[in-house]
Amino acid sequence: EEFSIRLLEKQGYQYIYGPDIAPDGETPARQSFEEVLLLEKMKTAVARINPTIPADVREDAIKQIQRIHSPELIANNETFHRLLTEGIKVNYQKDGHSRGDLVWLIDFSNPENNDFFVVNQFTVIENHANKRPDVILFVNGLPLVVIELKNPVDENATIHSAFNQLQTYKQTIPALLTYNGFLIISDALEAKAGSLSAGFSRFMAWKSSDGKVEASPLIGQLETLINGMLGQKTLLDLIRHFIVFEKSKKEDKETGIITIQTVKKVAAYHQYYAVNRAVESTLRASGYSEKKAAPLFVRESPESYGVTGVKSQPVGDKKGGVVWHTQGSGKSLSMVFYTGKIVLAMDNPTVVVITDRNDLDDQLFDTFASSKQLLRQEPLQAENREQLKDLLKVA
Q1: pLDDT of residue 380
Q2: What is the pLDDT of residue 222?
Q3: What's 314-357 look like in SS3?
Q4: CA 196: distance to chain centroid?
């Protein structure tokens, strides 16, 4: 726990000892143990990020996220995620006219304009259940990441038991997890991150701290994960662009009742870095924004692998990058993450996805169709060339 906190402090998080800000602590930051948001910190940040919006309207926006109460945790989490990443819609009177606007809880464009806290031993009481997660990362008073750590010396305390502990939190203190971005488990040797709906096998290690080289096996997984995944910029990027809620229909064969199942997915490290490089490459190749596009380095020939002679490609040459993928690496989702990000980066371009097999086309289309929230629009599937020509007649 101390090791994690020290690493997070190096990343610019401010450390707070949970009991100090408890309702009965020296400097209380919440009125009761049921409260999971640090409201004063939140109000301060929301005022700073939305200075033109009247104070009472900002208060109303904060109340909207406090009022998320459906019986299903994953539905609550999805509702919150939408408000967090798309802004909270508000209306107010200005100069005698009604005005629609958005209140943002996080400044995604300027990470330094947000408050990042690492808090340990933060007690939450819900329905008489008293729980104390090991470490929680708060951004602007929102508990976005929960980290459950197990003692490596205790042979019963494995990474599995850390995972089981999180499942207990989902049952006993769901209010805390309504606001969760993703979860982390570690026993000091292994460290893995996963989403709220992920089974144990879907918790993945983060294997690079910079996206350029894979971390040495001599460096602990927890250190690599904290340095690679929890840097302030990366954390906000992951939350905004690399989370999808996939919907699928399930039919009960006996009763014929159809239920909609929601699965929350967070990008794995190779998807995160590959998509960001592809976005950079696209912005550079299209000449869309010389300021936004970082220089992309391309190897001159296969022989030059490992050689430092890399050249930069010219801006606006219309030649974007290629990502080589292995089977089972999540290509479809990488394409969704890429599209979701490029839609915002390039002022809503038209994206055409071409596949070479019908079954693959359907499968890929289903992935896009079930990730509408991230894409911010409905994808369309062309049946033939004529229809494709029609679909492309858009601005």
Answers
A1: 93
A2: 95
A3: CCCCCCCCCCCCCCCCCHHHHHHHHHHHHHHHCCCCCCCCCCCC
A4: 11
pTM of this structure = 0.91
Distance from the Cα of residue 72 to its chain's centroid:
20
Give the per-residue pLDDT at 311: 55
Q: Which of 55, 211, 44 is nearest to 138 (CA)?
A: 44
For helices 232-241 and 73-86, the axis angle rounded to 10 degrees is 110
| Calpha distance 190→220 (Å, rounded) | 7
Return the closest-CA partner of residue 195 out of 229, 245, 233, 149: 245
The token pair at 350 is: 């038209």
Task: Give the separation between CA 187 and CA 162, rounded to whole angstroms.
Answer: 8
Predicted pLDDT of residue 291: 45
DSSP notation for 26-42: SS--SSSTT--S-HHHH
Strand partners, 259: 250
d(CA 361, CA 382) in angstroms, rounded, equals 10
Count Cβ atoms below 10 Å from residue 5 Cβ, excluding itself: 20
Q: Distance between CA atoms of 384 and 391, rounded to whole angstroms?
A: 11
8 Å CB contact between 320 and 282: yes
pLDDT less than 70: residues of the chain:
289-311
Largest CA distance in the chain: 70
**How crowded is residue 46: how many other Cβ atoms within 10 Å of its Cβ?**
23
Q: How far apart are CA 191 and CA 158, in angstroms?
A: 11
Of the CA atoms within 13 Å of residue 379, those in its CB half-sphere come to 24
Other CB atoms within 10 A of residue 210 CB: 11
To the nearest 10 degrees (0 to 180), the angle between helices 331-345 and 358-369 is 50
